[in-house]
Amino acid sequence: MASLLRLPSLLKPSAAVARPSALLRRRCRAGTAASVSASRSQAAAATTGAAAPAPPETRGGGDREGQVTPRSVDFNAWYTDVIAAAELADYGPVRGTMVIRPYGYAIWEAIQDYLNVKFKETGHSNMYFPQFIPYSFIEKEASHVEGFSPELALVTIGGGKELEEKLVVRPTSETIVNHMFTKWIQSYRDLPLMINQWANVTRWEMRTKPFIRTLEFLWQEGHTAHATLEEAEKEAMQMIDVYTKFAYEQAAIPVIPGRKSRVETFAGANRTYTIEAMMGDRKALQAGTSHNLGQNFSRAFGTQFMDENSQIEHVWQTSWAISTRFVGGIIMTHGDDAGLMLPPNIAPIQVVIVPIWKKGDEKSAVMEAVSSVQNTLKEAGIRVKVDDSELRTPGWKFNFYEMKGVPIRLEIGPRDVTNKSVVISRRDIPGKQGKDFGVSMDPSILVDHIKGRLVEIQASLLQKAIAFRDSNIVDVSSYGELKEAIAEGKWARGPWSASDADELKVKEETSATIRCFPFEQPEGAKKCFMTGNPAEEVAIFAKSY
Amino acid sequence: MASLLRLPSLLKPSAAVARPSALLRRRCRAGTAASVSASRSQAAAATTGAAAPAPPETRGGGDREGQVTPRSVDFNAWYTDVIAAAELADYGPVRGTMVIRPYGYAIWEAIQDYLNVKFKETGHSNMYFPQFIPYSFIEKEASHVEGFSPELALVTIGGGKELEEKLVVRPTSETIVNHMFTKWIQSYRDLPLMINQWANVTRWEMRTKPFIRTLEFLWQEGHTAHATLEEAEKEAMQMIDVYTKFAYEQAAIPVIPGRKSRVETFAGANRTYTIEAMMGDRKALQAGTSHNLGQNFSRAFGTQFMDENSQIEHVWQTSWAISTRFVGGIIMTHGDDAGLMLPPNIAPIQVVIVPIWKKGDEKSAVMEAVSSVQNTLKEAGIRVKVDDSELRTPGWKFNFYEMKGVPIRLEIGPRDVTNKSVVISRRDIPGKQGKDFGVSMDPSILVDHIKGRLVEIQASLLQKAIAFRDSNIVDVSSYGELKEAIAEGKWARGPWSASDADELKVKEETSATIRCFPFEQPEGAKKCFMTGNPAEEVAIFAKSY
């Protein structure tokens, strides 16, 4: 019940934990044949050819090939294999910590770039609070300390000396934020106070999984103070809406926004709003939350203001967060057996260009065309990378960038130079159906073509995820139906007005929890599927990360 | 000797530490009269007028006015006063920690935005390493542990349990970076490996000062691994050059780049390059460093690669960093008695527009013109803010934005609307000389005029700082001359080839240290001013932060 972004793990120790070597071991087998054999003959020839003047030991293979467990065989093993093979992250030396590698970090930067603009547009300023919080602060808000105290990291020694008061390494910043807000807020003229910070946070988790649940993770945490409850509620709703739009439009993840049940509400909040995403294994991922904190923290910390009528009041507050966990959500929503699949809007590389040439005398013409196409795309604002390494074969590169989920691959060989055309392959459609042969290199044609394809891929990933989600949500009208749906691995949606005790019973018996009362509700009278009493809302139940 | 960016403090406990209440106390006196009286009559009238429909208790004053200690009276008190009055930072609840407030953080973001682009242009990728480092790692590199162990913060309890191995909260990341590099680097094909991270770091400092030296601070740390010493040396030099250009062109700080003496070299480096800046009190600030680490860490951590001839070698490494300390450098280089003065290139607000109207019927015409000018400037890429609050007088706003160091203020009143013109005031030139009256609102004229002024201000701040620096560096040819220069608060530059012991003697006797052997060296034969022996280089000595 402790965390802003996560529920207590219902998972068995994951494959990642059981087999830590999976991420670290080098894979020396040649790439899987599937995508190479789907490539046209020119590429295949180059793959096995001996024209490139590279050291012989590196030909036709390498040490980075992803031999990834098929997704259908073992979803958890597939997940950690993809993270290793696509070079997204690695384990840190301290149990449960994670090193975010450049490609994984670039996805996080894409998330930051989008949200940072939205936060500023909606009136928030970035700032930075210290990460060390006096232990006494955590104890000030009763349910907050109950939720967080089991998972704290404590600094007890500083500069060689035992500290008088131990320091909490921030698990979240409501307490220190309120301590400072109390200094800065005196009058209604100081309100609303709307800030955000990008920071690292630490929670001593027992069962960890890269990106999804780690001892330390990166996030943004928004904190606001308002003069009225209504304004705070509006803010909490506004931010869950920002998150929802981000998930749909950028990450192509069709999250379901809604309200948490009392049992699942954040430790210290009156209301928690959430976006819930269905992963490829149909488990739910809480991908972002926004809390209406009421006056809980302002009462605990004495954060007061003088209103327009000279009355002293406690401020009304919100907090909201999205973390590097979202990167895990992207992997588990779109990935397939060939690896990662990135929505173009957040892909660090949208187009990879692979030059293909066999004989040395073909090289200069091919590279000249590659360089010209690269500039054309770059000038058009497309994120493009050329992989002209002569240490790797085109076949190796095809596999590698499929593993990395690059939305579009562009091949340019001698025949293409002659024809002034390129071959385009979509990551999301395997084989010939995903290819455009003979697309003109003429900038006015090529740019439009690629931009169109990127838009199509973005839309297609979202549509596919929506179809998957909708085919895996079952409307239930009895507890028996819920049990059946959950046993099949699906989500169950049904009218609910039963007690907290009933909710905990469902969790105990099925491992499913209420993910949310979705904002979008069916019309008409409803009867609680558990009690038969009238119900105002349907709830969604599912197993979750 | 411990730190990447700092030398052991030579300072007496600063005013900030001695008087922590200075930052926190509210100042309720009216603004200083200087800048208001310098304003034209229209503004002055509005300052004392009663036209704005604001509650009477807020007229003509307020709780944010900066009553700042004059710089010439007490530089340290002036510094902390400006930080409070310009709302740059505040003290955190844990001794020595700092909260970076939105305006201070926006300056840091401007630094980040520029450097992040330069780092990527020079081939570096961002990533993220965990902040918890096993204690045993710190002990692996002999001089590193000696430098850092006195100032470590240690986590000893996690999830309610005593940890088997205590964890260091990173003071810098060379050790954990090398631990990971050892996993990732096998072959020359994996080199160069060039990464950077934006992160918080912790050093248990005894004497702290906002921005300059805090328990926790924000920075970027670059880490690279190369196949040869030459390549590492080139990289270390490249990055100090990036920092130098940033300091000159963006921050208008005429730093002196050079090499550190052996005594002042980073704990674990073979060579440390530095940029040294002269603050307004003529103390030196080490504003950024770049280290050639040689093979010190690669030997300690076994970071090896197979070269093109199948030989196993240790990699050659660099690291380099700039921190939030740089914000302190900007304050102390350009600020004056009226507060902060920001170079336009890094100013979060380049132009502030203050609407001025007395009677209600003037408001709509003034606000319409203000809004139109705002849009014009925004579209031209100028960072513009309108302060249309009716809770504050124009006079209060003039003081407030001068305190915040906004380069240009633009006033628009009823007469300006009639004349279709504005009044422009430069922050860096007080009184009438800094004003342009009757500048046309016509976008084609106004935009060029303001852009021109911003360029002038940027150049003028740099020129002023260069003149100040150069008039405070004395060329010395004897130890006596050095003592005299240092006693006058100046920097001393002279030929040096004496011993480490002599260097420490100078420090003991004068409190001055070798800031650097500047890259720019005078030609001709030189004699060490201490020993009379031949010297290859001049060194710069100064007291420092």
TrEMBL record, chains A, B:
Metal-binding as UniProt keyword = no
Listed Low complexity bias regions? 39-52
Q: Where does the record place the region Disordered?
A: 39-67
Which is a Pfam family this sequence falls into?
Answer: ProRS-C_1
State whether keyword Lyase applies. no
* Swiss-Prot/TrEMBL catalytic activity: tRNA(Pro) + L-proline + ATP = L-prolyl-tRNA(Pro) + AMP + diphosphate
Q: Which molecular function GO terms apply here?
A: ATP binding; proline-tRNA ligase activity
Biological process per Gene Ontology, one example term: prolyl-tRNA aminoacylation
Q: GO CC annotations? A: aminoacyl-tRNA synthetase multienzyme complex; chloroplast stroma; mitochondrion
InterPro entries attached here? aa-tRNA-synt_IIb, aa-tRNA-synth_II, aa-tRNA-synth_II/BPL/LPL, Anticodon-bd, Anticodon-bd_dom_sf, Pro-tRNA-ligase_IIa, Pro-tRNA-ligase_IIa_arc-type, Pro-tRNA_ligase_II_C
Q: Where is the Aminoacyl-transfer RNA synthetases class-II family profile domain?
A: 95-343
Q: Which UniProt keywords apply?
A: Aminoacyl-tRNA synthetase, ATP-binding, Ligase, Nucleotide-binding
Q: What is its EC number?
A: 6.1.1.15
Source organism's superkingdom? Eukaryota
NCBIfam families of this UniProt entry? proS_fam_I
The entry's protein name is proline--tRNA ligase
